[in-house]
Amino acid sequence: MEPAPVYLDSASSEPLHPAARSAFEAALGTVYADARRLHGPARNARLVLDNARAVVAECVGVRPDEVTFTPSGTHAVHLGLLGLLAGRRRGEGRAIVHSAVEHSAVLHAAAWSQAPTASVPVDATGRIDPRAVAEAALGVDGGAGVLAVQTANHEVGTVQPVADVAGAVPAAPLFTDACASLGRFPLPAGWSAAAGSAHKWGGPAGVGVLLVRKGARWRNPFPGDDRVDERTIGFENVPAALAAAAALQAVAAEAEETNRRQHALVARVRAAAGALPDTEVVGAPEERLPHLVTFSCLYLDGEALVTELDRHGFGVASGSACTASTLEPSHVLAAMGALTHGNVRVSLTRETTAEQVDAFCRLLPEVVGRLRREGGTP
Amino acid sequence: MSAGATVPHLVLDCRGLACPMPVVELGRRIGDVPVGGVVAVEADDVAARVDVPAWCRMRAQEYLGEQAAADGVPSYRVRRVS
User: Fold this and answer.
1) Class of domain B10-79
2) Domain residue spans in chain B?
3) 3-class state of residue A60 by DSSP
């Protein structure tokens, strides 16, 4: 019998946590009213929404009134970054200074804003140097308005020195995209706004979290709405927000143990990939997200590699141009100077076992060797 | 890193080839030039801009930089050092 397929793409989306499912199912039939109204069902919806907010606040270590549920992680990124920019006063800096390896949601928002931008290069491990941010902030047209530095990179796992960046450029508020790390690591210090995405930690898709520090100058960059929470837009999906909060609470409670296990399993994949000829494992080896690793195999086509691994029952992602909707290679790999073809990103779910990882590590040399032979590569 | 003064010993026309083929061609043909010789990889594939220098780093060859071919297509220059 064929073994069940092994999903190794949690960095794209983590499977729904059972705690999220039960919270969602419990709320779905009973929570439907508009939380702003004054009747019983509305009070119930408001209670559940406030409860979800309080749970998220406690898990990430902020005040409940600093938490906003948004229709997606992407939207939370847009609101966080552009809201800080909109909060700048006349005469203050108005440029966005961001790392070269930010998620495309940050880059798209920066381009859309029409503000001047500066992209700060990273080193070969994908890490940004706080001094380079300070330099860019000094030199950018329009003056530094907002800094954007992710907590950790979504493709290669490298953790960024967010607090040091904030310390190096005190004049501009910092937005941090925490989508890749929320539920795994505590938030760093120094940010004014942050964003998370529930389906990355085992909550449902369609729920993002925007965090805005009390006292931060944040203004809605989009048309407003009349909701319980003035920062969000549209009728809140309260059952989904509750499910997201329940999943976050569950994964945060186990984070230390999960991180230790995943970090060690990823180290096995790093070793197996690193032992392949003409293959480079990219990203910081230790100061990294626990659950993901990226490597590139010289002379191989990323699409062929992903397809072949899928045929053997392993679902992985790739940053190679041939696998992207844009047909451009990953801007993260390019910024690091890493090989972009033959690229594979492996990311473990909380359920991934040592046996599954070992089976993947055994398969890898066979698949890479065969594809290279068939391709007649040098 | 000046690529200006170098005359390539070998020009690889990789127009229309998608990644990883330009780098595969480079790997196949680098042995056709003597040590010290220069190969020009003319490629319109956008990944080549990152992958040719990455190949040089991984294979311990020298990346000289990018020029433009007569038709404007990027020409990536590599010196064989071993």
Assistant:
1) alpha beta
2) 10-79
3) helix
Q: By CB neighbour count within 10 A (0-12 exposed, 13-18 middle, 19+ buried), where does A114 fall?
A: exposed
Please check whether residue B63 touches A, CB under 8 A. no
Return the half-sphere exposure (C-beta side, CA atoms, 13 A cut-off) of residue B45: 26
Q: Cβ A301–B20 below 8 Å, yes or no?
A: yes
ipTM of the complex: 0.92
Number of domains into which chain A is organized: 2
Other Cβ atoms closer than 10 A to A257:
10
Per-residue pLDDT tens digits of chain A, which is 378 residues long: 567 899 999 999 999 999 999 999 999 999 999 999 999 999 999 999 999 999 999 999 999 999 999 999 999 999 999 999 999 999 999 999 999 999 999 999 999 999 999 999 999 999 999 999 999 999 999 999 999 999 999 999 999 999 999 999 999 999 999 999 999 999 999 999 999 999 999 999 999 999 999 999 999 999 988 888 989 999 999 999 999 999 999 999 999 999 999 999 999 999 999 999 999 999 999 999 999 999 999 999 999 999 999 999 999 999 887 777 777 899 999 999 999 999 999 999 999 999 999 999 999 999 999 999 998 888
Domain interval for residue A227: 18-253
Distance CA A213, CA A229 (A): 15
Residue B11 near chain A (CB below 8 Å): no
Report the C-alpha gap between B82 and B79 in whole angstroms. 9
Q: Give me the total of CB pairs closer than 8 Å, taking one residue from chain A and one from chain B.
A: 64
Read off the CATH number of the domain in which A364 is found. 3.90.1150.10
